[in-house]
Every structure is written in structure tokens, then in C-alpha cells.
Structures
1.
Amino acid sequence: MAAPRTASAALPVRRNTILLASALAANSAMLQLSAAVASLTLVLVLDVNGLLGLGPAIVLASGALAALPAGRAMDRIGRIPVLAVGFCAGTVGCALAAVGSVRGSAPIVLAGLVAVGASSGTALLARTAAGDMYPPKRRARGIALVLFGAVFGAILGPLVFSPLLAGRAFDGEALAPLWLAAGGFMLVGLALVLAVRPDPRDIAAALARGADDDGAERAPDPPAAPLREILARPGVIPALIAAQASFAVMVGVMTLTGAVVVDHFHHAAHHVFPIIAAHVVGMYALVIVVGDLIDRIGRTRSMAIGLMLMAISNAGLIWLDGIPGMSVSLFGLGLGWNLAYVAATTQLVSLAAPSERGRLVGFSDLTSSFTGAAIALAGGVIYTAGGSVPLAVVAAALAAVPAAWILLLPSSVGVRLVRRFSV
């Protein structure tokens, strides 16, 4: 007699995983352009070098503001409608950035960067959908599989953007085709997201009603708890700290890379894209192996190791200042982010019911993106005043301190802090 099929076996998890991974590949290609030229686009339009970090800060702050309401909407109406709105916003934002670059219009460029940021903040919530589709024992691998799609965006982005910029003067006319190409990527991502069926939130509900991997019946999830109660659960605060530190430090450094390469080391503008590609490959190329490693060695240890690798990579930027050296450092930065961020996301998803995951991951992205915006803005000031060395030192410290905190302090400390300040 054949063994009964589990709930997960009867659902199109593999198909949905491939579609979501492909959509993140399109988003990754767009984000490469944003990381490489958002700061330079706004500086060219405003002609104020002291505002070097303003462009990335706007993108990150917009993503932060979009993350929590998008996460709450995911819990109410499903993952796919919200992701689709995010990709639509990205398409519009890239078009506005292109028009604003050609016209030299700061308001239009600003509107475009706001929409691009809101789009990226929403698209990153696809990892919530990934966590919905896999049982706890395989959840890190499931999230890793969806994130793995971004590596193809890392490969495709430079193949499209570098030829469009090579040999051209770096001005608004040159930036417009880049932003339009990025908008094309977002349209492809939209089509892929709309093809996901059924909604991953429904898959999570089906898994909750069905049998677990060992055949035991699972009770239905309780009603969604208030966010304050979710934050007070043991293990949530360390995961939030790891997600916030890893994401904020990573984007704070990555978004300033284009300015450092072009303005400080005087390399040609198209050399930015191979460096960003090395970074994105570090973020995603080994993500499947990283997912298995996290399931094997534990999430807390993985978060700390990932943050320490980020600290070492940031410190390496003090000595590695050529194109190959910066590529190595940015690769290590991406790999450390990979380990810490996937572990933190897996922990957050596992500590929340399906009806709570969107708001918890959205809150994590809210704090992470605002911190990243602050680091990008402050990093621009630090870089303008002192160059790349002070920037590397500060970035290394911002990764190392949370790693030590996660290893040395029990999660109950964070729980007590949440309870104290939420009274």
C-alpha cells in the first residue's frame, strides 16, 4: 500500500519556488542599478557632492516605510497581490528616474527613487512567502532557494547595464537608458509574481491543517497576536538585531560603492557593475549551501558568524582599494550578509504563525531599512569628510558589536527590554 501523501507533497511548492526565485532575479538586477547609481543620479541632478548618501537614504527609507504596511497587508489579503503592487511601483519608479535624469529634474528623480525604494522593500518580503511553503525542518533551505534567484540577476545586470554605459559621458542622458532597462526587469518580475498559484499564505494554511513530516496532525494556528507580544517571544529580539545589523551595514556600504569607485579611486563608471556583481554573487550564489548550514549548526551561531564575516570584509576595504580587492571585500560582505540574514529570517518566520509572519518580517525590514538609510546618509558624510578608511572602520564596528551581543547576551535580556519600554 502506498504511503499517504503529505499536505506539502500535494501542493505546487516547487513551481512557486521557481517563480518567486525568478522574480527576485529581476528585482536583483534592478537593485544592482539602484545600488550603483542612486547616489550618483541625485548628485548629478542636484550638483551637491555633500549629499552623496541622500539618494540611497531615500531608497532605503522608502523601503522601510513600505515594509510594515506591506507585511500587514500580506497577512490580510495574501502575499501575491502585495508583491505585485511592489513590482508595479518599481516599474513606475524606474521610469520616473529616467525622465528626471534626462530633464535634470530633482523632484522627478526623488519621486522615482521613492517608488524604487518602496518596490524593493515590498519585493524583499517574498522571503515570507518562501517561509510559508516549507516545514520548519526545511525552512532555511526553502528561503534560501527563493533568494538564490537573485544570483541570476547579479549575472544579468552587468551584462545589460555595462554596455549601455561604456564609452559614454556620465550624465543624465547616459543614466536614462539604465533606469529604463531596470524598469523592464521589474515588468518581467511582475509577470512572474502573478503566475504564482496558489498564494503561499494558503499553502501555509494547508500545511497547518494537514500532516507534519512525521504524520502527526497539527492544530490550527491561533489568531494573530499583537506585534508587541510577538516581539516579547524568546529568540525574536536577537533575530531582529541580526537582521537589522546585517541588512543595514550591507546596504550602507553597497550603496556608496559607486561613489567610492568613481569619485575616490577615479575608475571608469562601468567598473562599478562588476564590483556590485561580485557583491550580489556573494549574497546569493552560496545561499543554498548556507541554508543547509544554518539548519545544521543553528540559527543563533549562524547569525553571529555572518556578522563577524561582514566586519572582517568591511575592515578589508582599508587595504583593498583596487577593482579586484574591492570585489573580494564586497563578495565577503555579501556572503556574511547571506549567513546572518537568512538565519535571522528563518528564526523570525519560525517564531510567528502564518497570520503573523508578514507583520513581523515587515517590522524587521522597517527597522533594518531605516537603519540602513541612516548609515548610508551618515556614511556619505563620513566618506566626504575623511575618505574610505573611516567609512570602512565604522562599518566594521557596526557589524562586530551586534555579533558579540548575540553570542554573549541571552535572549531574555531583549525580552525584558521590550516589556519595559512597551508598558
Note: The chain has 18 helices and no strands.
2.
Amino acid sequence: MLSSEILKDLIAFPTVSRSSNLELLAYVERLLAPCGAATKRVTTERDRANLWITIGPADAPGVVLSGHSDVVPVSGQPWSCDPFTLIEKDGLLYGRGTADMKGFLACALACAVKAGERRLAAPLHLAISYDEEIGCVGVRSLLDDLRDLRFPPALCWIGEPTSMRLATGHKGKVALRAHCTGRAAHSAFPTSGLNAIHLATDFISSLRELQIDMADRIHQDPDYDIPYSTVHVGLIAGGEALNIVPSRCTIDFEVRNIAEDNIDACIDDIRDRAAAIVRPLRTWYPEADVMLEVVNAYPGLNTRHEAALRFMSSLTGSNDVTTKLAFGTEGGLFSERLGIPTVICGPGSMDQGHKADEYVAKEQLEQCDAMLGRLLERLERGAIF
């Protein structure tokens, strides 16, 4: 079965994050049942699950192809076609998730179908996760389950879109919320209260100062487009009415860190900056506070496993210099929690992801299919590294 045919089926499932992906998983199970695939669902949710698939011997280390089933929403985007119907035009395949990342899933499933027709000496695994787009949430329960594997994979291949370039890393990310507490008062007497929105703006100023500091640090990673850690404020909410000095305000922000920057030390630095803002205010307003809450986090990836990189380079058929990605993946979790060498390589580009009229070039799918075909040849020989 062609990967483009499978992609047509996958796109038809509107698996937006936090919505069910069980129908998509049932489709995969039906597709691979004739291939002798062993499948297992792992989840902590009622209507969403991860799917672990194995084709080939269970008593040897193999390779896992990992990808997420969820896609970002389409609401408010000016699509020129139905986002959940695959459309081909001028060699491009349009639909939500074609690039990020059902294109790779389609190639991986086509590879699995072919694997069922061969006698593998080392197994092919597929990991299909949920709710990746909201912080690599779903895959964590799967990784907990995989700790019990007697023969863990020798390599994890994440299929996020890289235009089929081999990527060895991405930044880590921590999402935080700052809860700013002031004192309410009538706006006609603003000095009798403490404006929580003003506290929030002071805190945001301190984050901007932190960003300047990060950009000037000695330790940077030139493999990234932005070679240093970044701070970004995305949401602010506070106040009840114009004539009330607000006592509450929240700020949602994130830090994306390079491997050289310790994220725990960075969070401690931010807490110190928050404490410095409220300390002089507490003489008059004891309740003054800027409290930090860690909402979500995932680790970065920085793969230096030479044998794994040589193996993947042999599959790409190219000696191109590797790259690192500005966006995150579940790769850091595979590496940190299971100790599996992890790389990223997939069809399409994130330049097309998360937008109206998202697409992947058919040529990219064919390139991925060819690369996975070379992987099967190696698994038949049991020659990984």
C-alpha cells in the first residue's frame, strides 16, 4: 500500500489535540493485523491512547519509528480546501497534518506493511502518541510502560518534518505561569491599592532583561537559528473592571533552553527576579506576590551517539551536515527516560505546519519511503550498529 494512500486515510481523522484518536488507532490496527503485528494501547485517558507496534522478533533490539497522531486546530484559519480531505495539486498534498506529522506516519505504516512480508532479524517498532502538540503529554505514559521491555530499541527515529535532513537535537522547553497578587481598591484612589497588572508588567520587564542576558552569554549553540536560550511571554490576564485596581493578574510564558543552560538554574533565577520585585512592596502590602507555577516541561535533545548518527547517515545516503530544530519533539523524553539514542528526520517542513493549506511534497514522501526501505534491508540482516 502506498504511503500517499495511507495518508489520505489518516488525514480524514480530525485528531485535533485533546480530542479522541481511537478511531485512527483502530484503523492502524486493522491495517497491520494481516502483517502479524503485535500491538498494545497504553493510556491514562478515556478517549485517547498511545499505540505500540512490533513487527519481527521480540528477542532483539530494533528500531522504533515515533510520531504523534494529533494535529493543531484549524478554526479561524483561511483554508482554501477541506483540511480533513487530502487534496493533491502540482505534486503537493494538502491537508491538516500532512507535514506535522501524518506524512511520516503514513510512510512508517507503509514500511510496517512491507516489514510484514519480510523475515526480519531485528524488530521494527512504531510508537504512535497523542497530545504531542500541547507539550508532549501523551507519550509519557507509553515511555513509562516501555521501561519494562527486555530488549529496548537500539535507536529511536522521530519523524517530525525536517525536509528529510538529519536532526540531532532541539531545545528543551518549560511553560510557566506567574500569579501576581496585589491589593484591590477603587480606581479613584489607586495609591490605596497595589495594581497586580503593574506587578505583571514589572515582571515582564525582568524577563526581557533575562533575554538580553541569555543572548550575551558565552555558551551558545551555533547549530540553532537562534543560538541561545529564549524567553517568550504569550498570555496575560488580569483585572475585573476599569474602576477597580486589580488584585490578580496571571502571565503565561516559556523558556526554550539550549543544552548548555541549566533549566533549573534558570527557573531559580526567574524566582529571584520575582522576589526582588515584591520585596520592597511588602512593607505596605504584605500580600504582594509573584508566584511561579511550572505548567509543563519537556527536555531538550542533543544526540552525540556516533554509531547511531553513522547508521542514520547511511540510510539518508547523504553526508550533509546535521541540523538542530527550533521546535520541540518527544525525542528528548525518549533519550532522557529510556536512554535510547534518538534522531529526527521526516518529510515536509515546519514552515508549512500549523498554517492554513498545510502541505507536504509528494517527492518528500517518496524520499522517506526510500529511506525506510533501506532501514528494512538493515533490519533483515540484523545490522543496526
Note: Residues 196-215 form the longest helix (20 residues).
3.
Amino acid sequence: MINKFGIMQGRLLPKYKGRYQAHPVGYWEKEFSIASKLGLDSIEFIFDHNEFDENPLLTNEGLNKIQKIEKLSKVKVRSICADYFMVEPIHSKNKLIVDKSMKLLNQLIKNASFLGVKNIVIPCVDKSSLKEEKDIKNFINNIKKIVKTLENADVNLSLETDLEPKSFAKMIDIIGSNNVTVNYDTGNSAALGYDPIEEFKAYGDKITDLHIKDRKLGGASVTLGTGDVNFSIILNLLLKYNYQGIFIFQAYRDDEGIEIFKKQYNWFKNELNLTLNN
């Protein structure tokens, strides 16, 4: 298991316009040097719906700026959390939304490949949850159209869903590409009451992106170690299934971000060391 750590974009900075999770337009660059000083390896960039056209992931100028900051800070963008598709989902019943979203996703894949980004996380939760069989069918059909693009770009679509484990695994099997993988969110799974052992049995070998957070059953995000996530079990499962990706901290945040992160980062590293030394 690779011992590398990354941060969800914005978690080390003051909230952008009071939003819990958002691409911080105008000051996103500041986070790279902070992450570097904390010993973090990467930042999972956010591509959200609000002001998406101002996101540097969409322009050559923006991509070049990201590369320059990566070089200076030694902190890389290795993954993208595409929250945009929670608002305009790929499986929408509205064809205009689907066409627009698929066009943007194709552009993201191309630009991710240029940056050397390995995973684009597609959240199918909350507003974009796959609630009906029709939603799942539409999602599968639309993702199948871009499988070749993903494979040629060597980029994974790392899916995050609230489907129960066997249904989630079945959907990925039907899509049938090694480049359509799983984003495992520790907090969201705990909030849904899922058993990590059953989840890993269903798709443990397909996890390529990992979000570290803690939540109570049916509740909101809380500081690491105070919710219902059994980190000991999950870390041992990650070892068992030879997880090779980065630990992305999407943990609880306050208005400022950095001090609450440091506290949780130290707590998690201690948990990880206990697991590795047992």
C-alpha cells in the first residue's frame, strides 16, 4: 500500500463564498504551497457547477498555470472530483443536459490526460443518486460511449455511488472497462450503514480513489475518529486488497480549514501506523 496523502481542494483554505466544498476561484493557487509544507503529495482538484467556466481545468492557460505551480510546490493534481455532474448528471432524463455534460466530460478527460491526472471522480450521490433502474441504464449507456476515450487517455472514471455493494459491482461489470473504477468514501459508506467487508468483497480490487472522512450513521461529516467509520477494518482491507492509490482527505472542515485538518491528519497517520505495524 502506497503511503501517500492528498487533500480535497479547498480544505486548507478559508471557505469559498461560505461553501463547504468548492473550487476556490481567485485563490486556489495558495493551497499548493500549504500542502507542500504539510508533507502532502497531491490535491484532488474540484470541478464544480458554480462558475465552472472559470475553472483552470478547461483552458490551456489554466492547465499551464497548474503545471507551473505543481513544479514549484512538488504537489501534483492526480485526481479531479467532478461535482459538476451532481447538478447536471450524465444520466439525466433531459437530453440537452446529457449532451452538455458528455461534451464537458470528454474535455475533462482530454485535459486530465494532459496533466497526468489518473482519476476523475463522478459522484452519483445526493441530487445525482441513481435512484431508479432507468437511471442506472442511462448511466451505463452513456459511460459506454466514452470507454475508448478513457482507455486511450489512460484516465479512470472513478465512480462514487450510494448503491448497495452488489448492485454497484454489477453496474461496473456491465460497463466492462478497467478504466471505470470505484471511488471509496469511508464516511459516506458509514452514513449509509454499509459493511466495509461486503463492499470490498464486491469491488475492493477496483478501488482507485479513496476519500477519507468520518460520519455518523445517517448523519453529517464529523472529525475523524468521532463517527461510525471503523478505520481499523478499512485500513486492513486496503492492505489486503493491495490498494495503490492516494489517501485523499475530504474530512470535516470549519470556516478556515487548516488547523482542523492538521489535527485530523495526525490522528489518521497514527491509525495508519498502528495498522502497518500490527
Note: Strands lie at 5-8, 42-46, 76-81, 119-124, 156-161, 180-185, 207-212, 214-215, 221-222, 247-249.
4.
Amino acid sequence: MASKDSVIGTIRTALILCVVCSIFISSAAVILKPFQDANVITDRNKNILAAAGLFDAAMHTNADVANLFSQFQPRVVDLDEGRFLTDEELAQLQIDPATYDQRTYLNDSQFSEAIPSEEDIASLKRRVRYSTVYVVAGDSGELETMVLPVSGYGLWGTMYGYLALESDLNTVVGIGFYEHKETPGLGGEIVNPRWVGQWPGKRIYDAQGNVALQLMKSNAQGEHQVDGLAGASLTTRGVDYLIEYWMGPRGFGPFLANLRES
């Protein structure tokens, strides 16, 4: 029998230790995954609520999120056809609006497509065909608020956020970014409440239905202008372009136009 101090004994001990540790880590990952998934959903819902002006971190806790979010109904939009998917189509595509994460399908050719370079003003490279939106309806079923996912490239990476619109599907309720790689104190100010506070009441489209909302270097005036970020011109341009793309003809533009008409 090999001595514990021999090379074989040392290797055996190391292998046993590795097996025990891997079992422990794997078990922990399996046990914790439901909690991690729940935290991801809670964080997503919190950001949707914040964009819609319904969550204030100073007034609410994570425990309030589920109750506040219950007023939202997730719906899936076919961006190519500018309409909601039917229940039959959702079943066929195996999409559950409550859990569908469109970012995981960006490289799936059934659910996404490459964006031609001449159209890719937000530098996204690919766009999903089906996108989840979040709807708040009144007691009579009328639309009150709609929250749309938006994304676009800033200085260092893609910025992900939500844009909330009033029932006219034109007036901004609010905007919030939940993931970005922008420089703290410069482009990172896209999450600063003072900057975000400029957005409510601004209008996306002009009288002709064209995307008119713009970020200005300074002295923004009127309902179609928002002050950009000082010292962060590329981040400002990225936000400008993501609004133009997602509110335009290759984003939610046709869907919003169809919904307004109906």
C-alpha cells in the first residue's frame, strides 16, 4: 500500500479533494439556480417599473416589486409584421411572454437576423424578430403605459434599457438603463436620476410620424430635445442612435403606428 507521503498518495489525495469539491460546487449551482433566476427576473421587473416611474428605491424594496409589477402584462411583438403574436403563434414558437429573454436568441437564425450595415445606426449587428413589451391597461382595458426594451452601442459596449411611453405611444414616461460599460462620471451618467429626469414629457415623433427626439450638446429646448451628457459625446450619440433605431421603421415604429391606428 502506498504511503500517504508518497507521490501516488499525494496524487490520490488531490484527486479525491478535486472530486469532492466539484460535487460540492455542482450541487451548490443546482440548488442556487432557482434563486438566481428569480433574482434576475426581480431585477428586470424593477428596471421596467423604474422606467415607468413606478419604482423608487428610496420608497420601495425588492419585496414590493412583485406586487407593483402585477399590473403589467408582458406581450410579444413580431417586429417584422408590427403586431402582437397570437396565443397560437406563441405556443408554436414555444415562447412564454413571462420568461422569454430575447437576448438569448440573438444568434438563433429562427428568431433573429443580421442588420444590414447601412441600417445598423445603433451598432447592434443583429436584431431579434420577436420582442417582449410590457403593457399597463386601465380598468376598461384601455392602454395606459407601454414599456419597450431598447439597446445600442455607446463608447465601450452595448447599453441596455427600457423606454416607457404614455397611452398615445409618443409621450415619454421615462427611460432607464440597467446594463452598460460607459465611463463612470461621464457616459455612466445615463443612470443619473438628474439626467434621466429630463425625459418624462418628451415626445418621440413629430406631426408627420418621423422620429424627432434628439439629444443636444446643451440647451435642449422643446418637447423633442434632451440635453446630452457633458464630456461623453460618443455615449450621447449612442443613446441618440438607439432611440432613432428602435422607434424607427426597423424597430418598434411600425408596431406603434399600427397600434395607434387601431
Note: Residues 1-70 form one domain.
